[in-house]
Amino acid sequence: MHRLLAQARAGRPRAVGRLVSLVEDDDPRLPELVRALAPGSGRAHVVGLTGAPGVGKSTTTTALVTALRAEGLVVGVLAVDPSSPFTGGALLGDRVRMQEHALDRGVFIRSMASRGHLGGLAAATPAALRVLEAAGCDVVLVETVGVGQSEVEVSACADTTCVLMAPGTGDAVQVAKAGLLEVGDVFVVNKADRDGARSLVRDLRTMVSLGSPAEATREPGSPWRPPVVQTVASTGEGVGELLAAVRAHRESQQASGGWQRRRRRRAREEIEALALARVRRRFRTLTGAPLDRLAEEVGDGRLDPYTAAAALLDGAPTREGPRGRSAGGAE
Amino acid sequence: MHRLLAQARAGRPRAVGRLVSLVEDDDPRLPELVRALAPGSGRAHVVGLTGAPGVGKSTTTTALVTALRAEGLVVGVLAVDPSSPFTGGALLGDRVRMQEHALDRGVFIRSMASRGHLGGLAAATPAALRVLEAAGCDVVLVETVGVGQSEVEVSACADTTCVLMAPGTGDAVQVAKAGLLEVGDVFVVNKADRDGARSLVRDLRTMVSLGSPAEATREPGSPWRPPVVQTVASTGEGVGELLAAVRAHRESQQASGGWQRRRRRRAREEIEALALARVRRRFRTLTGAPLDRLAEEVGDGRLDPYTAAAALLDGAPTREGPRGRSAGGAE
């Protein structure tokens, strides 16, 4: 483990990949790894890229990598796939477009599925980010594969979240319905050379300026107003402006204190997810399989699930100690 | 509450709607409600409908409602929207296609968002199903809105899961990648009159017969082989065959014991979700806001999240009792 960590710190891609695998699998050595990584972590700017399939997330990611590499920065790409039963390996095979960066020692590309991690995305993503940071990444691009709630969850791991859209892949109302208006720090209309781009930009600007849901969840008192940037990621057009907007967001956040508040909120979610994963693990390793017995009674309609949940907690204290008052009675 | 419950049992739609709202909001009276509903629950056949946007889930649901109503059965429709920040009301407005059933006293239609429920979908959906059962539903159709992991989660609440596809909305490989091959008990190729339907049916049949992932998660020793049914839901074509396949699945499951095993597994997940929600609630109501303090330390890189999680559990025992050995040391 320590050898692996030393190799990852030296920027050896294979070691980085193996450490992310430990995260995916919720390996028993993970706490030790994270403890070793924690001091000094938090240096990299974590940029989330999210949006419906077909908007050009991979192409935009690749274009951003090219731009960042041109400045000599070390870049990590974490493609998070919360819904797939397949692990990273399979997905990596698809990422043909990333091949131009495959041999670059300053780029680390890794896919991650989170099914194996009891703490889910909220626990797995920050741990993987720490690995990429340890490898020296200045910026980590977190790209979500798939859609749905997971998109919103992944954005919670980013310092700056870019919400991507493109003409013909849904309108601004759908973005709002998916809850993405609330999480976007920068909105990107990709494929801006296509029909319908102009009206998409206009609709987005209107919705962002109305901004009621965004105001509620974004840092209170933040002076940041999410811009709408136009790109043609396949040609690189507008990618410089996108990068400038992402950096302007960081500066604004750091000046307002929002940066630190958001990182603390992320830490809060990570801690909670790890604590809950630990409780869940205890449920499953209780002797006498009380969860199975309770499930039988609830499944057959002999017991209600709330009483069963209280009994389960009663049998699985989160810390050791003599049996006291029942959890059922205490609430 | 008891009056509301009595009204719901008498089939009053407004009371049913209000009880589902209690579920959505994780109302403090929910345990009481679920305790009252638990005895005798489990009568209805819960049928999940899942698939990518555009495959015709709503149209298929409507066609199934028509077919079931023709037999005089009482039908519930639960449209679960895990990703939307909007609650049921807003969505119901969209469901123009359902209007033909809106005045039918034998049909209960309700959308449900689950963001308000600390236990998430795993806890909210079974509670909503119990409400619809209490209203007398013989069959409840659970339709997911949106895509992603949530689809797979919702299917976990169904006795029989129908995975829908249509020509032009993605191929069989995408269904496999979304993890839907594993959860399908019946596969439906809707819009079967369109180009590409035949090859879609063929591909699906091949993948289902290969069926390696399905075998792993489906009931061991189950004699059920998921059929591929073709429908044109908008005209009602094939809907009778679909209903027959759904019922054949129930009979096969009941004969093999898979029915009961699956319901117990669902109960297991529900209990666990409720127990974890309770732990989470305790984290958030701890005096002295230790979670905020720990998040600050982890966010600033002064503490690692695993040690923080252990400290959080140490301060928030799941049952009352004198302080014993620390949870951190016990694992």
Q: Could you name the key traits of this structure?
A:
homodimer; 331 residues; alpha/beta; 52% helix; globular; disordered C terminus
Describe this structure in words.
The structure is a homodimer of 331-residue chains. In chain A, 52% of the residues lie in helices and 12% in strands. The first copy, chain A, starts with a helix and ends with a helix. Chain A has a seven-stranded parallel β-sheet, with helices on both faces. Chain A has helices spanning 2-9, 13-24, 30-37, 57-70, 88-94, 120-134, 149-155, 172-177, 180-183, 197-210, 212-217, 239-256, 258-285, 290-299, 305-315, 327-330, and strands at 45-50, 75-81, 107-113, 139-144, 160-165, 186-189, 228-230. Chain A is built from 16 helices and seven strands. In chain A, helix 5 (88-94) links the parallel strand 2 and strand 3. The radius of gyration of chain A is 22 Å and the shape is globular. Chain A folds into two domains: 2-258, Rossmann fold, CATH 3.40.50; 286-330, no CATH class.
Can you describe this structure in just a few lines?
The structure is a homodimer of 331-residue chains. Chain A contains 16 helices and seven strands.
Topology at a glance:
2 copies of one chain form a homodimer.
Chain A: H1 2-9, H2 13-24, H3 30-37, E1 45-50, H4 57-70, E2 75-81, H5 88-94, E3 107-113, H6 120-134, E4 139-144, H7 149-155, E5 160-165, H8 172-177, H9 180-183, E6 186-189, H10 197-210, H11 212-217, E7 228-230, H12 239-256, H13 258-285, H14 290-299, H15 305-315, H16 327-330
Parallel strand pairs in A: 1-4, 1-5, 2-3, 2-4, 5-6, 6-7
Helix pairs in contact in A: 1-2, 2-6, 6-13, 14-15
Protein name (chains A, B): Methylmalonyl Co-A mutase-associated GTPase MeaB
InterPro entries (chains A, B): AAA+_ATPase (IPR003593), GTPase/Isobutyryl-CoA_mutase (IPR052040), GTPase_ArgK (IPR005129), P-loop_NTPase (IPR027417)
Family (chains A, B): Belongs to the SIMIBI class G3E GTPase family. ArgK/MeaB subfamily.
